[in-house]
Structure formats: structure tokens, C-alpha cells
Amino acid sequence: MARFDQQTLKNTLAVVLAGGQGERLYPLTKDRAKPAVPFAGSYRIIDFTLSNVANSGLRRVAVLTQYKSYSLQRHLQLGWNVFNYELGEHLSVIPPQQRMASVWYRGTADALFQNIYILEKEKPQYVLILSGDHIYKMDYARMLKYHIEKGADLTVACIEVNREEASRFGIMQVDETNRIIDFAEKPSDPKPIPGKPDAFLGSMGVYVFNTEELVRQVIADAKRPSSHDFGRNIIPAMIEQRDVFVFNFGEGAVGGPYWRDIGTIDAYWNASRDLLEASPPFVLDDPRWPIRTYQGQYPPAKVISSNRNSDCGAVINSLICAGVVVNDARVVDCILSPGTVIEPGAVVENCVLMEGTLIGRGARIRNTIIDKYVHVPPDLRIGYDLAEDSRHFTVTESGVVVIPKELPVEQGYELPVRQ
Amino acid sequence: MTRILVVEDDKNQQELYRQELSEEGYEVDVASDGKEAIAKVQKERPDLIVLDISMPGMDGIEAMGKILGSDNRIPIVLNTAYSSYKDNFMTWSADAYVIKSSDLTPLKNTIKQVLENVKQSGS
């Protein structure tokens, strides 16, 4: 009978699925894969999952990339070159190898099927499958321990979601031992948790498999008509014949059960807003659970106020990163990434500004996400007239304006100059 | 008639398989390595492939990946002198794994069984 011990972590390979196109995050995914989208000023989305891996004591990681992987690969090379190969540790970035198929990944299960060679070379006892686009803190070691104690073939991490959210998740039914007895992917009429009519068990897309079982399942899946998806195909095929259990996120969560799928611009926006709360539901500075990233070299952030009694030169309720310069300008409820510069007289409210953004003199920007290296010309207004903004930029349902990376804003945009 | 493609580099063994499997009532074609096997499969789909692993040129494991990548329904029986490949996940895509011996009975029985399974699964 297997036991959880130090060897368990060494015998586990974490596989991070980082190949999704992220169409609903467009234009933030115009030039990069979803896991490489900058988040919380200094980080990329994938940093949260990889920090969980490292903080859980796991040291063997394969990141499966696919679309637009340049930026992601570069980030991993610069920020995550921390594992010691001589001790058997590694983080490998693996683009599609086309060993088993001459197509790109047709689904999450196909991504593993096409990488059976990696599983063969690594020969781990357990495989932890993760998604590269979620924001949460979780101790995967607790999930592995649970998986082993249950004698499971597959363990699926889950969270409680409400009825509205349930239609976007794989929804599970379990018996009193936490064994999954029913699984429906994105159901229109989901079955609630017994005794809780408005709560549903949703899959987080985090799985622990016994490796041999995983290999058998993805091969069987590859040979039948299927959308090659863990949620849609593999789990339903397994629950009747194999030992499949849920693991409640609450038992593995670190610092509160906060979990967000950054699938859409509005989800990205809301998760960003969460960070600005006085007592945020998700903290970045937990010493027990450091979040790692790559940061360029920047001088300290600087706020310049030429007149101590004026409102200018003020930063209120914001995250500001190294290299930021707020020069006689006003910043309220913002996330300012490294090297952003706000010139005199500008007012920036409720914005996420990514690295190297420049807001020109007197510009007024609100409710806007500005991707890297955009230079906003002086006196421009964005976020005040959504009909006008939507002629030039993406505007989400909830009214967030998104300006894509390196867009030369002054071209083609008639400047609605401040009165 | 059920068509079997035997992929085998050894000429003597090729002849042996051709003769014995023909006697079982199969139509037998032969390829000498993985590359030739892929070309033959693309030209005319066999009902089953008997595939050696260790061959000069493209080996059986790589050929199996490519064949199943273009048609995942073709049943494949790996036929090798080595038992050590059995633990290799790359061989698990095959429908069966047979260790070569001078007596072809185990291979013949396995072929029969695999074809029966295919028939039952309705393809």
C-alpha cells in the first residue's frame, strides 16, 4: 500500500497546461499565451500556479505550451530557472512534439496523450495536472496525500460554485466517501450538493492521476470519437470503473479559499480589483507562500508633488511597482506595473497599466486596462465616452476599455481633448 | 479477406510470417521498416498490422505513433524479441504485445483475439 512521504513529492511530475488560445481574453492575448498575461503588476498569470508547485515542494515540472509561446517561454527562462537539474529537479518547457499525431492539441487529454514520451522518460508515480491560467494558492502536497490515502486512481480538485457559475464548470455529484458518482461538463441543469440547493461542486481542472492509469486513459480516449477533454471525456469514462474522488479546495487552500479562472477580460478585471481592497481576499505577501516571478531592473517608484497642498502628485489605494513615476499626477485605485510613467496633470482612476505605459500630460483615463508600452498622448480621455472608445478599442460588457500592447494610440484616434 | 501488414526487417522471418499467416487465411503484405510501413498503410489500409519494434531505419514505436496519428482505428500487434519494451508507455498504444518465438501460435492467437475485439466494438 502506497504511503505519502518525501518520496511522493519526488515521484510526482507536475504538468502545467499552458497552451490555450485565450480568445476571451483578447486583446491581452493578441501576442501572448493566456498564462503569460501580466497580472497584479509584477506577475504573469502562470506564476501563481508555478509558485504553488514550488511551495508545495514539487520539483519536477513540465509546462506544455502551444500558441504564441514566445513571451511565455521567455518569462519561464528568466524567472523560473530555479530548479537544480543535478538534484533531479527541472522545469521543462515543451512545445508540441507531434510524435503521436501531426496536429496541435485537440484538447486537454490529447495534450497528455501527445506527451506520453515525456511520461515514459520521467516515469513518475503520480502526475499532477494543472492549468496555467488560474489565480489561487493551494498546497498540492495535501491533495497528493489525500489521493494516496483514498487509494484513488484519479482525484479531482473542486470548489463550491453558485447556480450561475455552475454552467461554466464540470459539475460533480459525490457519495458520502467523496467518490464521484456523476460528472456533467457545463450542464444547463446542474445537480446541487445534497442539502445545499444553491451550491454545486465544480471541477477546478486540477487532477492527480496514478501515471499508469493516466496513460491507459488518454490512449483509450485517443482511439475513440472524443473531444479529448479531461472533464468532458476522461472523468465520465472513469467514474464507473475506477476509483475517482474529489478533493475539496478548502482542504488545500493556503490563506483562504480564493480561486479565480482568468478566462475573460471581466474576470481579469474583477480579480485585479480584488487586490486593491483594504483587506484583499488574496494576498501577495504571505511569507509562507511567496509568489515568484521575473522582474526587470528598475529604480524605486517615485511620486513627485511640486505643490504639497495640491491634489496632484498623489497615489491613492493602488499597487505601484518599481520604476513607476507619478509626476504631479493623480492615481486612484490603480495597478501600475513596472516602469509606468504618469505625466503632470494626468488623472488615472480605476486602471490597470502594464509595464512601460506612459500617460501623457493632462490625460484622463478611467476603467481601462492598458497593455505594455502604450503611450497615451497628452489630454486624451479614455473611459468617459464608451461609444467613442468602442470605435477604437475593445470595451467589455461591464464597460472596461482595453488598449492592446504597443498600440500607437495617437494614430487613427481623434483626440477628444479635455475642455 | 482480412489483410495483414507484417512489418519486419529480417527477410527469413518475413517469409515465415507470410507463409504461416497466409495458411491461416489472411492476405499478407510485408514492409521492411517503419517508413515503408507508413507508405503502405497510406496506400491501402490493412485490417491489422504486426509490427516489429527494433528495425534499421524508422523503428516500430515511431511508426506506430505516425500510423495511429493518421488513423487511430487500425489495430496494431507489436511483435518483438524483447520483453523490456512492454513497460515502455510508448508501446501501450498497441492493441497487443507479443514476444517473438519460433512457434507462431501465440502470435496467431493474439491476431485472432484482436480482430475479434475490433469486430465486437463495432468498427
Structure description:
The complex is a heterodimer of chains A (419) and B (123). Chain A is of the alpha/beta class and 419 residues long. Chain A contains 12 helices and 27 strands. In chain A, a hairpin with a 5-residue loop joins strand 9 and strand 10. The radius of gyration of chain A is 23 Å and the shape is elongated. Chain A starts with 5 loop residues before the first helix and ends in a 16-residue tail after the last strand. The C terminus of chain A is likely disordered. Chain B starts with a strand and ends with a helix. Chain B is an alpha/beta fold and 123 residues long. The longest helix of chain B has 16 residues. Chain B has 4 helices and 5 strands. At the A-B interface, helix 5 and helix 8 of A face helix 3 of B.
Q: Topology of this structure?
A:
The complex is a heterodimer of chains A (about 425) and B (about 120).
Chain A: H1 6-10, E1 12-18, E2 38-39, E3 43-44, H2 46-55, E4 60-65, H3 70-79, E5 90-94, H4 108-113, H5 116-122, E6 126-131, E7 134-136, H6 140-150, E8 154-161, H7 163-166, E9 170-174, E10 180-185, E11 200-210, H8 211-222, H9 230-238, E12 244-248, H10 249-252, E13 259-261, H11 265-275, E14 302-304, E15 314-316, E16 319-320, E17 325-327, E18 330-332, E19 335-336, E20 341-342, E21 347-353, E22 358-359, E23 364-370, E24 375-376, E25 381-382, H12 386-392, E26 394-395, E27 401-403
Parallel strand pairs in A: 1-4, 1-6, 4-5, 8-12, 14-17, 15-18, 16-19, 17-20, 18-21, 19-21, 20-22, 21-23, 22-24, 23-25, 23-27
Antiparallel strand pairs in A: 2-3, 6-11, 7-13, 8-11, 9-10, 9-11, 26-27
Chain B: E1 3-7, H1 11-23, E2 27-31, H2 34-43, E3 48-51, H3 60-70, E4 76-80, E5 96-99, H4 105-120
Parallel strand pairs in B: 1-2, 1-3, 3-4, 4-5
Helix pairs in contact in B: 2-3
